[in-house]
Amino acid sequence: NLTISGLVEAIARIPAAPESDSMLKHFVSDPHNRYTPFPLTPIQHAYWIGREPWVQYGGIACHVVFEWDKDLTEFNPQQFAAAWNALIKRHDMLRMTVNHAGEQVVHAEVDYFPIVERDLRSLSEEAQHVELEQIRQQMRHQVRAADVWPLFDVQLSRLSEHKVRLHLNLDLLQFDVQSFKIMMDDLATAYQGKDLEPLSITFRDYVMHEQTLRHSAEWQNSWHYWQQTIPTLPKAPQLPLNPDYQHHAPEFITLEGRLSDSEWQTLKSVWQQWGVTPSAGLLTLFAHTLANWTASPDFTLNMTFFNRQPFHEAVQDLIGDFTSVLLMDFQHDSSTDLKQRILQTQSKLWQRLGHSQVNGVEVIRELAKHWKSSGQLSEQEAALPLTPVVFTSMLGMSMDGMDIEQAMTHLLGDPVYVLSQTPQVWLDHQIMEIEGNLAFNWYCMAGVLAPDLLENLFNQYLSLLQQCAADPQFFERSLTQPEPLHPLLPPDHVIAESTLDWHNMSLPEISPQIVQEVTQAWAQLEHRALRGIWTTLRNHQLFTSPEQAYRTPQIIQQLKVTDKHHKLIQLWLDQLCREGVLTEKDGEYRFQDDFPKAPRLPLPQQAWCQRLDTYLEDCLKQHPALLNGRHSALELLFSDPAITDSLYRCNPSLQILNLSAARAIYALGQQQAQGLNILEVGAGTAATTREVLSLASSTIRHYQFTDVSRLFLHEARELLSEYPQVSYGLFDINQPIDEALKMDGGYQVILAVNVLHDAIDLAKCLQGLRALLADDGYLILIEATDQHSPMQLATVGFIEGINAFNDFRQSTGSGMLTQPAWLALLAEQGLEPQLSYPNSEVSALRQHLIVTQKRPQHSPQTLGQSESYQQQIEQIKSIWQTFLHGEINHDTDFFLAGGDSLMATKMIVALQHAGIKQASLQSLFEHPKFQDFCCQFESAPSTATTTVETDIIEPNTTLESQDNTTQQKNGVCVRHYPLTPLQNAYWLGENALFSLGNGVAHFYAELEIKHLDRLRLTQAWNRLVQLHDQLRGEIDAGQYHIHRQVPEYQPQFLDLSSWDEPQKTRWIDEARTQIAAHGVATHQWPLFDISILQVDGETSLVHLVLDLVVADGKSLNTLFQQWFALYDDLSIEL
Fold it and tell me: What is the residue-wise DSSP string for 424-439?
């Protein structure tokens, strides 16, 4: 019973200890023997042995290396050196060494420790970098003699007149985590010139007191417990090892991950309801991830905990290593779900902590003896560490009200570099909480485990955390039952239709910092590209004065443009007209005598945008040679791998979208027992391929990598050589499909990243790819959705494929489509959109990830084409008659016969319910006459069969008769109702089909709030979301769908308080303009948006956008009243 009352009862049942047994009473300070050798603690002894070069996977110091960059206006090296020596004087453990007998000795006096300062001011920036890297590597690999003082190292590097780097190397023989905080506190005091008072006890006193407790009944009971438990413990996780590992001095890498505040709060809340600690929850999920890769599902993990016992009030002021370990074993029973496993872990954890008087290092020694004596340890296993996988939790560690991260940074700020390494530890998973987020780092010994295993483990663990946070019910799902197979398809080619909840899939966060970086970078690049195009024209004596007028053939002749680039020049002229530089009348172009002003914010210093800027300049310089065909745009693009990396891999947009695509594929792969068959078209430099394989290779059976270039295929073979499931082939999306690429049963996934815009005929291309998909397979694409880009026109626009389009895109003058245009086109081609990320029509990333699923075509009774088509016409005619209440003939015009947009929406839904999936609002608006409307479906027969009975929604159906309808959508139970007439008007008015539409109907409010509590405001809003169905809705096929459960909503936040006033004003004005122009998308929850701008230390602006299909004016008034009431008091009932 882990309730408060249960714990009180349990404590009351414990008999009071006799006074003579009190640990506090027996604690003795022994200043007389202060400098007498005393034993190493078990963990210290393990660290000390691990330093020896003969220890396999050892030969390193267990230490932490920190680096800080400090400005000399706020950091005084002389004061710091004095403070450091005052620290040495106060704390015995900073004067400690280990003698050859394995005992620690505190020296009464040591020399003054001078902090060495290297002067690097005369070196170039590059030379400084080399020197700093050498210092870092020296400290990383330094194993200072344990019997020679000092064991720590502190150095300074002078970088300029005002800047230094502080290097700190701390040996964990002397420190634990809390000791770092004590060190920082005392340093801060001494740095201010204050005296450090002597301590009343020493670390030696603490260790010697612990030694006396070995004779106590509690320690003996724990020892007996572990002797009984040891025979039941399985071995460490048997993970795949790297057979080529060279046993030299180990190198370490760090993998860093985070869960957002909302995700972490969700997990903690769930676990709190179960009565388990976050540490137990995370430990279980970590073990579950490992179990997917281990030879045996049963194994033992080494859990670090910080066991500073309050034997004396001054213990909290000591520097020393109070670390202990606890062995936690896991038996992964296939019949238990994650919730049961977590509860079992918590129960076992309480039990093991109750016997933690015996240090886990001693238990490990006994465990080794048992395995050896019983013959359970092979010769190979005996050469390996017994417990190389460690779990370290620093959750809940509060030091004078500060968490561990604050404690480490309040004096010197955030370090620029941190390294932690432990001998014989292959993987140390460390967790802590930072500003409400869960931060976890994996400190890993590089090269020991099989290639890419660490990255795969880490990505799977992160994905598991995010999945559990997004859908807490996942904890209680069976881990053994496979997803149901589609009854009409062979098992090898099945992906379940509705088990994936795309709506709640965990995808990388698009932070305000990324938005700002991308927006600022592309504003500069686009302006510079436009300026460059204009300069090219002016350099050829074009448009040198406003009175000059030119026609396109004259411009082409003046520029000496080769035939293949004639279309590009027309696109240049169109873009200059859009930007207001030129005007066009009767085919003549004139200069407006004006040019757009340059963006005020500079190009960011990030490497990707700086490299693209250089690439742009190179292209602009080569414009004359590119225009007349003397120079190749491809040569410029591929002259430096950093260019394509910056375009397709390293910039924040593609990093987010490539990872999102990888997570989508991994999620699909989790449902495919035999592994996925994937085709990637236009794979190019393998930027996305690498991300996908890194995360999802374990779920992929066959990966067909294709491109039009043999060079790319050759390079990919080298880049992807570690993935045996990858094969390579030529494929041009504009050419007939090679039979060799077709797969029996089709591909479960086709991936196309920034290639489909190269199609000459996009609809035909999509039909070709659709034919290669398995039934219910997925086409996943990433495409630029910013339709008009001067940067593209000035650079890759010279590559013929970019502007080769010869289809409906001719009317827009761009090969690119907007996100709504993509969604409409894909749906028309039988590829149903499942996910769009970001879900807004206009993306700050300038690109979107779109996941589509091939519409199922199950035809148990296939009819002849003519018979089927005739039946379909009769079916359509019947439905038209139902809505129009009159006779229908070939020339009947739906709208002239009395139909309206509301009726049209309902009729299209009825047609789709009847199996005529190709029917769409667009098709009806473009072909309102009955005969023309039906002709669209002649070559694409209905999916209905002779036995289908049509369930038509009557045009006068009332809201009351429909509002309780429930269905499964993407695996989530939803309710839905038909849109009201006014809702329909708003919804249809937002559609680009209407000449005066493509707008937004939304409510926008800006609230100025002093001393805003963001967390409370967010919690209040989420209460409203749970209270009001309308706030959990989205529109699908003319129906308003209400989700029973949605994730906690997190407003976007941007801190402008450090910006100057012009920057603030400009950003706020742009935010208002964007909100006014775009609103929110209605096809995917949420149909509202909240952003918070911190203007200064007191003032915040809260922007609320709410689509008018959600609420009317009176409802908005109610909504605001309730929101403010909850903000004032979250406990009130509404």
Answer: T-SEEEEEEEETTEEE
pLDDT at 250 over 50: yes
Q: Domain containing 186 — which CATH number?
A: 3.30.559.10
Omega of the bond prior to 599 within 30 degrees of 0, cis? no
Residues 848, 884: one domain? no
Task: State whether 382 and 407 are in the same domain.
Answer: yes
**399 and 433 both lie in a single domain:** yes
In a domain, 1116, yes or no: yes
Longest CA–CA span in the chain (Å) reads 112
The residue to which tokens 């500060």 are assigned: 402
DSSP state of 448: S
Residue 229: name the closest of 373, 367, 391, 349 by CA.
367
- Residue range 300-334, pLDDT digits in tens: 999 998 888 889 999 999 999 998 899 999 988 76
Listed residue (1094, 1101, 1013) closest to 1058, CA to CA: 1094
Q: How far is Cα 881 from Cα 58, in angstroms, rounded to an integer?
A: 83
Which of 956, 979, 1009 is the last residue before a domain boundary? 956
Higher pLDDT, 53 or 663: 663
Q: Are the beta carbons of 179 and 397 closer than 8 angstroms?
A: no
Predicted local distance difference test score (pLDDT) of residue 948? 34
Query: How many other C-beta atoms can be found within 10 angstroms of the C-beta atom of residue 1128?
Result: 10
Pairing of strands 427-434, 437-445: antiparallel
Contacts of 401 (CB under 8 A, 6+ apart): none
837 shares its domain with 909: no
Predicted TM-score (pTM) above 0.70: no
Neighbour order of strands in the sheet with 676-681: 726-730, 700-707, 676-681, 747-753, 773-784, 847-854, 831-837
Determine the Cα–Cα distance for residues 323 and 311; give it in Å rounded to an integer: 15
Residues pairing with 517 in the sheet: none
Cite the DSSP H helix spans in 155-291: 177-191, 203-213, 217-229, 261-274, 278-291
Give the integer Cα–Cα distance in Å for 1024 and 1043.
Answer: 14
Residue 387 forms part of a structural domain? yes
As a whole number of angstroms, the distance between CA 358 and CA 362 comes to 7
| The pLDDT of residue 896 is above 80 | no
CB 585 within 8 A of CB 602: no
Is residue 718 within 8 A of residue 641, CB to CB? The reply is no
Q: Are residues 883 and 741 in the same domain?
A: no
Residue 974 lies in a domain: no
In degrees, to the nearest 5, what angle opens at C-alpha 267 toward C-alphas 344 and 276?
Answer: 30
Do residue 897 and residue 1040 come from a single domain?
no
State the total domains in the chain: 5
Q: Residue 431 to residues 303, 344, 428: CA-CA distances in angstroms?
A: 12, 21, 10
Torsion angle (degrees, nearest 10) of CA 199, 205, 207, 211: -160
Domain holding 914, by residue range, is 865-956
Sign of the alpha-carbon torsion through 517, 520, 521, 523: positive
Residue 1084: Cβ within 10 Å count = 19
Encoding tokens for residue 13? Answer: 């049942």
Q: Are residues 1024 and 943 in the same domain?
A: no
**Rounded Cα–Cα distance for residues 442 and 467 (Å):** 20
Are residues 879 and 815 part of one domain? Answer: no
Lowest-confidence pick of 252-256, 783-787, 915-919, 990-994 = 990-994
Please enumerate in sequence order all residues whose Cβ is within 8 A of that of 1100, keeping only pairs 6 or more positions apart, or say none: 1008, 1009, 1010, 1012, 1014, 1092, 1093, 1094
Block residue for tokens 């996988």: 389
Query: Is the peptide bond preceding residue 278 cis, with omega within 30 degrees of 0?
Result: no
Q: What is the CATH number of the domain that holds 931?
A: 1.10.1200.10
Asked if residue 592 belongs to a domain, the reply is no
190 phi, psi to nearest 5 deg: -70, -35
DSSP reduced 3-state for 1131:
coil
Q: Are 1126 and 1020 in contact (CB under 8 A)?
A: yes
Q: Which residues pair with 751 in a beta bridge?
A: 680, 780
Percent of the chain at pLDDT > 70 equals 86
Quote the CA–CA distance of 978 and 969 in Å, as a whole number. Answer: 16
